[in-house]
């Protein structure tokens, strides 16, 4: 049988969206992993341009929840959440069910999503909830041999003699450092990101997303991320949300809770709002584009066999509109 997928992206963080309800029986985990490994390869080896991962959409078993999202990384591992991907899943589910505000089931929480005003013509946007938040070592997957139970703006000598890091799960684990521009664009992020995700370090043995953050001005930051299971990515929604949280906590002379923060990234821009509840728990709104690039059809057996010769695609036209939008950001 042929499988239908939609090539989507949020801030250039791109995925193939796969709706499991199109099959008489949903694909099993082994097939989903193999599919992601095959189609996401870059440099012409995958399906069209490849992707950062596969967003698996299915029915939710939870009451009052419109659908479920799973995130399979390009290497076949599963991520607990993806903020950029959630926006595109929200758009897909909302369109299918004619709803603008609802909840989506993710690995650890049923998250609120809502359609918001378009960023520009043919650049639809969604707001999604990013939570839960934890600084606890066990939640982060931080090894017990590390002395601290939390890491908040501290040096980690094994990583760098100069940089200070903060560790937070949202719920994906993130390691964040505020840096100057030269460090942001330099080689340190790649060096640290690769070492922290090669399975050899004893701080985060299961790996961790690593982000460098440059403060551009009041309520304005730039985030560059080395993503666990992916590598360098145009944007990581949970990383931008976690970075925004740490920006509020560590730079309160520049911003505070409930203020809109503009977050630039290599793939474009999002907006975030950091909230603190009455119980002192944090959660973030992540607001950004939900772009559908093309609709792809391919025989399922071919995709699982790493054969893309029979694939076909229908381009939506939204990508050129998004690129025009991004051009206004760089010239503003």
As for the number of domains, it is 2
CATH level-four homologous superfamily name of the largest domain: Diaminopimelate Epimerase, Chain A, domain 1
**C-alpha Rg, in Å?**
19 Å
Give the beta-strand count: 19
Category from helices, strands and their pairing: alpha+beta
In short:
By secondary structure, this protein is of the alpha+beta class. It contains eight helices and 19 strands.
Commentary on this structure:
The protein has 2 domains: 173 residues, Roll (Diaminopimelate Epimerase, Chain A, domain 1); 147 residues, Diaminopimelate Epimerase, Chain A, domain 1 (Roll), CATH 3.10.310.10. The protein has 8 helices and 19 strands. The chain has a 19-stranded mixed sheet that branches. A hairpin with a 2-residue loop joins β1 and β2. It is globular and about 55 Å long. It starts with a strand and ends with a helix. The mean pLDDT is 94.
What is the fold's blueprint, element by element?
Elements: E1 2-10, E2 13-19, H1 29-39, E3 53-58, E4 67-73, E5 78-79, H2 83-97, E6 101-105, E7 110-120, E8 123-130, H3 137-140, E9 154-155, E10 164-169, E11 173-178, H4 181-185, H5 188-196, E12 209-217, E13 220-227, E14 231-233, H6 237-250, E15 260-265, E16 268-276, E17 282-289, E18 291-299, H7 300-304, E19 312-315, H8 318-331
Parallel strand pairs: 2-3, 4-6, 11-12, 13-15
Antiparallel strand pairs: 1-2, 1-18, 3-4, 4-5, 6-7, 7-8, 8-17, 9-10, 10-11, 12-13, 13-14, 15-16, 16-17, 18-19
């Amino acid at each position: 049988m042929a499988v239908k997928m939609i090539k989507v992206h949020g801030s250039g963080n791109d995925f193939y969206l796969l709706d499991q309800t199109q099959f008489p029986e949903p694909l099993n985990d082994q097939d989903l992993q193999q599919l992601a490994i095959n189609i996401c390869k870059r440099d012409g080896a995958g399906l069209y341009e490849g992707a950062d991962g596969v967003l698996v959409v299915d029915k939710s078993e939870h009451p009052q929840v419109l659908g479920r999202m799973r995130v399979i990384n390009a290497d076949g591992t599963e991520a607990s959440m993806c903020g950029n991907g959630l926006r595109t899943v929200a758009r897909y589910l909302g369109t299918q069910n004619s709803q603008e505000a609802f909840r989506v089931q993710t690995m650890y929480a049923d998250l609120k999503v809502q359609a918001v005003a378009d960023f520009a013509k043919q650049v639809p946007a969604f707001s999604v909830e990013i939570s839960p938040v934890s600084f606890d070592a066990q939640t982060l997957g931080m090894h017990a041999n590390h002395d601290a139970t939390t890491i908040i703006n501290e040096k980690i000598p094994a990583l760098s003699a100069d940089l200070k890091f903060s560790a937070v799960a949202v719920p994906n684990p993130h390691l964040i450092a505020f840096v100057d521009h030269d460090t942001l664009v330099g080689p340190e992020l790649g060096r640290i990101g690769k070492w922290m995700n090669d399975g050899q370090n004893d701080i985060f043995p299961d790996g961790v997303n690593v982000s460098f953050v440059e403060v551009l001005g009041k309520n304005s930051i730039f985030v560059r991320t080395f993503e666990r299971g992916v590598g360098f990515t145009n944007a990581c929604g949970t990383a931008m949300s976690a970075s925004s949280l740490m920006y509020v906590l560590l730079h309160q002379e520049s911003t505070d809770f409930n203020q809109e923060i503009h977050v630039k990234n290599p793939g474009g821009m999002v907006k975030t709002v950091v909230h603190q509840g009455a119980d002192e728990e944090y959660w973030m709104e992540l607001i950004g584009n939900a772009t559908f690039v093309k609709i792809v059809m391919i025989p399922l057996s071919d995709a699982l066999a790493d054969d893309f010769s029979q694939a076909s695609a229908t381009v939506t036209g939204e990508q050129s509109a998004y690129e025009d939008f991004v051009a206004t950001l760089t010239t503003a």
